[in-house]
Design brief:
Structural class: alpha+beta
Number of strands: 5
CATH class: Alpha Beta
InterPro entries: DUF6950 (IPR053802)
Helix content: 25-40%
Strand order of the largest sheet: 4-3-2-1-5
Strand content: 15-25%
Pfam family, one: DUF6950
Radius of gyration: 14 Å
Protein name: DUF6950 domain-containing protein
Length: about 140
C-alpha cells in the first residue's frame, strides 16, 4: 500500500463525486482504473481507454479481448480470477452485480464500494451486496 493511500483514495473519490457519467470517459470501469493508477501506479487501462464510447463499442471491445461479461474482461485484464468478498480490503477493485442495472466495477472504501452510476454520478453500495474482488498493489 502506498504511503499516502488514505489521502489519495479520498482525493480520487472527491474528484469523481459530482462528475457526470459518460461512457468511455467517466464510467464505472474507467473510474476504478483511474483510482488504481493514482493510488498504486498500475495502469490497467491500456486495453480499454479510448476504445469505446457507446454500448455497441464496449461490446465489440469485450469480444476483441475475449470475454462476455465485465467480470470476465476484468479477470483477463487483471490476470487473475475474482476473489471472495470476505478477502476484500480498502482500495481493492470490486464487482457489483444487479439484475436491473447489470455489472459495475467500483473501489472498496471500507464497508461501502464507490461506483460510478449512469443515473447518479458516484454512488455507494454496501460491500455485502458485491460479487467478488481483486486485490491490487
Amino acid at each position: 500500500m502506498t504511503r499516502n493511500f488514505d489521502s489519495l483514495l479520498s482525493k480520487e473519490i472527491e474528484k469523481a463525486r459530482f462528475k457526470k457519467y459518460k461512457l468511455g470517459e467517466h464510467d464505472c470501469a474507467l473510474f476504478a482504473i483511474n483510482v488504481i493508477k493514482e493510488i498504486y501506479g498500475i495502469d490497467y487501462g491500456e486495453r480499454i481507454k479510448g476504445f469505446y464510447s457507446s454500448k455497441i463499442g464496449y461490446l465489440k471491445l469485450w469480444k476483441e479481448i475475449g470475454g462476455s461479461s465485465l467480470q470476465e474482461i476484468t479477470e483477463i485484464i487483471i490476470g487473475e480470477k475474482g476473489r471472495e468478498m470476505r478477502k476484500v480490503g480498502r482500495g481493492n477493485l470490486v464487482l457489483y452485480k444487479n439484475d436491473m442495472k447489470g455489472e459495475h466495477l467500483g473501489i472498496c472504501i471500507g464497508d461501502k464500494v464507490a461506483i460510478v452510476s449512469v443515473a447518479d454520478e458516484l454512488i455507494f453500495i454496501d460491500i455485502l451486496e458485491c460479487e467478488c474482488c481483486w486485490r491490487i498493489g
